[in-house]
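in:
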């Protein structure tokens, strides 16, 4: 049985004064939740504040990015050892916004995934097709390539701990959620590719999240799908009440 994961990606939102009040309200609201992993991924500068605010609560903290070198003259970058020493447990890698606006490629994704695992941080690898790719029937080709290259030369033992997030680019921030059937179809494909790479045992262990306009009113149906093990939530994670409702999805 795979343990569900509900993760919030705050992207580039919130100012410092909002962060602690969010954490206090949210931690209180979900203090009894025991059956899912709950993760919040704020901008770098709020990581330590949230690690402290969520100490002794069910909430873990993740980063939205990391560099692949451990240290050195790389102005502006943040490394795995830095994140680990701050109490960060997860890191999003290869988000489509990084791929679209900041030149992220499958090769740099692969370097970051390996650096995260080397530093005992669980990577959340994002994959997903654009609208154009879907309309050209390239969805599976794109997903296959992103997985094969992004997870290239990983050992099955370390692959077991990673999380994959299927985030169709056309569903992000648009209010257009993939139907549960579309999402399930791609999740099944992802598990199939993972099985060909790492064996069926490992593929059955890897959690696969859906992301793209997940809201309180569509999370239940998405979570009922066989291969959907959780959600990666953008906009709806910014409000503690709507994120609480998502964490308390009903199967
Ligand atoms: P939205 O939930 O705002 O569509 O964002 C999804 C996402 O990109 C999470 O990483």
């Amino acid at each position: 049985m795979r343990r569900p994961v509900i993760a919030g990606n705050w992207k580039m939102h919130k100012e410092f004064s909002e962060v602690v009040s969010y954490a206090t309200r949210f931690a209180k609201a979900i203090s009894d939740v025991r059956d899912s992993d709950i993760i919040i991924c704020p901008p770098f500068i709020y990581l330590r504040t949230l690690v402290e605010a969520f100490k002794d609560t069910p909430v873990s903290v993740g980063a939205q990015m990391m560099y692949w070198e451990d240290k050195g003259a790389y102005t502006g970058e943040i490394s795995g050892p830095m994140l680990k020493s701050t109490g960060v447990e997860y890191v999003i890698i290869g988000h489509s916004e990084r791929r679209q606006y900041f030149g992220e490629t499958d090769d740099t994704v692969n370097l970051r995934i390996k650096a995260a695992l080397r530093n005992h941080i669980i990577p959340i690898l994002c994959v997903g097709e654009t609208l154009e790719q879907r309309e050209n029937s390239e969805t599976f080709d794109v997903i296959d390539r992103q997985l094969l290259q992004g997870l290239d030369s990983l050992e099955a033992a370390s692959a077991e701990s990673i999380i994959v997030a299927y985030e169709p680019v056309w569903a992000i921030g648009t209010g257009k959620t993939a139907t549960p059937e579309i999402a399930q179809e791609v999740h099944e494909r992802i598990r199939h590719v993972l099985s060909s790479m790492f064996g069926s045992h490992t593929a059955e262990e890897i959690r696969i999240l859906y992301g793209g306009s997940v809201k309180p009113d569509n999370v239940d149906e998405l979570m009922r799908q066989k291969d959907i093990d959780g959600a990666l939530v953008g906009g709806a994670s910014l409000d503690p009440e709507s994120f609480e409702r998502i964490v308390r999805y009903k199967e």
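note: The chain has one domain: 5-247.
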